[in-house]
Amino acid sequence: MSDPYDDQNIFARILRGEIPVQAVYEDEYALAFPDIAPKAPVHVLVIPRGRYISHADFSARASDAEITGFTRAVGEVARKLGVEQSGYRLLSNSGPNAGQEVPHYHVHLLAGERLGPIRTS
Ligand code: 5GP
């Protein structure tokens, strides 16, 4: 990923504590909090603490410890939310064609109802 990371993006500001969020889960690798515009009854964003723009960037540059820690954190969020049995969807928009709005890598965790087809348009 050649684009520079934008330290003023909204999730960077959340990580610095400049914008308060109701943390669902946090550890040294990840922070999880509800999406401000939920698309499902449960809609949580999980973000790594490191400065990564997208999944492409994270997968290329993050350390093994960060990748492992983040992956485990996403699983822990699902457990904490109590959606493991009922099921959930993980989704990450990367780049313009996916409509990524916030240039800090994040995974959407959607749950709480039958989510329907992955793609509707
Ligand atoms: P993207 O389109 O980049 O995959 O998703 C960005 C997500 O961030 C959107 O679902 C949007 O609702 C959410 N979002 C944008 N700004 C904020 C914010 O200030 N707080 C929270 N909690 N979510 C935000």
State the order of secondary-structure elements, H for helix, E for strand: HEEEHHEE
**Radius of gyration over alpha carbons?**
14 Å
Describe the strand arrangement of the main beta sheet, using strand numbers: 1-2-3-5-4
Cα distance spanning the termini: 27 Å
Approximate shape:
globular
Low-confidence stretches: none
The hetero molecules present are: guanosine-5'-monophosphate
Helical stretch tally: 3
Count the strands?
5
Structural class: alpha+beta
Q: Mean pLDDT score, rounded?
A: 96
Helix content: 25-40%
The biggest beta sheet reads: 5 strands, antiparallel
Beta-strand content estimate: 15-25%
Structure described in brief:
The chain is α+β, with helices and mostly antiparallel strands. It has helices at residues 10-15, 55-61, 64-81; strands at 25-26, 30-34, 42-48, 88-91, 107-111.
What does this structure look like?
The protein has 121 residues and is α+β, with helices and mostly antiparallel strands. The protein has three helices and five strands, in the order αβββααββ. The protein has helices spanning 10-15, 55-61, 64-81; strands spanning 25-26, 30-34, 42-48, 88-91, 107-111. Strand 2 (30-34) and strand 3 (42-48) form a beta hairpin. The longest helix has 18 residues, at 64-81. Bound molecules: guanosine-5'-monophosphate. Guanosine-5'-monophosphate is lined by residues 10, 19, 21, 33-37, 45, 93, 99-102.
Supply the key terms.
about 120 residues, alpha+beta, five-stranded antiparallel beta sheet, about 25% helix, about 20% strand, binds guanosine-5'-monophosphate
